[in-house]
Amino acid sequence: KSIMDELYEYFTEFKLHAKLRIAVACCINMCGAVHCSDLAVVGIHTRPPKVNHEKLAATCEIPSVIASCPTGAIRRHSDKNINSVEVRDERCMY
């Protein structure tokens, strides 16, 4: 969010000379398509990320979230009544 807060005016007022692709990934495997972007920011976790189940279901497509992890650390929540994901700590590259 802080990156987009700083760059917002460049996108809304067309201050850039050409299109700019920005990607933000949260692990060193770069699952956020940073390899095909003009500007890439890669954060490195020091522990596995925690899932906010309420926000995740409302803001993300669960199959896309699962498919985006190259190590298979993200999987569908074991409780079928919860529309969310779980992070398998042993597979996470944090």
Automatic annotation (TrEMBL):
One function term, GO molecular function aspect: iron-sulfur cluster binding
Gene3D superfamilies: 3.30.70.20, Sulfite Reductase Hemoprotein, domain 1
Annotated Nitrite/sulphite reductase 4Fe-4S domain residues: 2-51
Pfam families xref list: NIR_SIR (PF01077)
Alphabetical list of InterPro entries matching this protein: NO2/SO3_Rdtase_4Fe4S_dom, NO2/SO3_Rdtase_4Fe4S_sf
Domain of life: Bacteria
Keywords, ordered alphabetically: Iron, Iron-sulfur, Metal-binding
Protein name per Swiss-Prot or TrEMBL: Dissimilatory sulfite reductase subunit B
Taxonomic lineage: Bacteria, environmental samples
Chain's gene name: dsrB
